[in-house]
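To the team - pyridoxal-5'-phosphate complex, inputs and output below.
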Amino acid sequence: MSISRNLAQINERIRAAAEKAGRDPATVRLVAVSKTRPAADIITAFQAGQTIFGENYIQELVPKLAEVQAAVQWHVIGHLQSNKVKYIAGRVAMIHSVDRMSLAREIDRQWGICGKICDVLIQVNISGERTKSGITEEGAIQLVRECALLPNIRVKGLMTLPPFFDDPDAARPCFAELRRLSEAVAAQQITAVDMGELSMGMSGDFEAAIQEGATLVRVGTAIFGNR
Ligand SMILES: *Cc1c(COP(=O)(O)O)cnc(C)c1O
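Output:
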């Protein structure tokens, strides 16, 4: 299967899932997760109409920023160390994985140096299982409140990475819980905070995520093949 054919299929599945959920398909955006994939694959996908690409590793993203000249939008979706932020400052459109104040402060500082504002999502560890990135549900509102005070970042919503990768039905309660949390945060009406984005769902479960309100689905394997 080719990248462009895979993309067409995924976009069709997104459309169908949105319609089944009674949602406008235009409210769901596809993040093509290109970690471990060469720049050539990204360019192929871009030429097939894909614009948003998600990367996990800064050491891999930085060379790609130079190699890919096309007007793609880069999203950082993986765990991010504060000392790596300076390498991507002003160069990515969104960071999905803000889960602590020290990281938020460094993003704010580095984007401030560039004179730009960074869109971020707060990553929440919904299941509480495993040691994995993400603020606890209980801590999320406080983190959003503190992030809202930083001038060079803008909170756009929430992200989660559930621990069940194989069973879409098992992940679904996590997706539903993230949506409930997002509504609870929105109800606080925190100044400068927007809860419009819900980043959830991957190759195995993006349709379930769309049923539960995902606005950004992060799909790698189903587009680019096995890593
Ligand atoms: C790798 C990754 C994805 C994509 O996973 P696939 O199963 O290949 O679609 C999505 N989100 C995050 C945070 C990832 O690390």
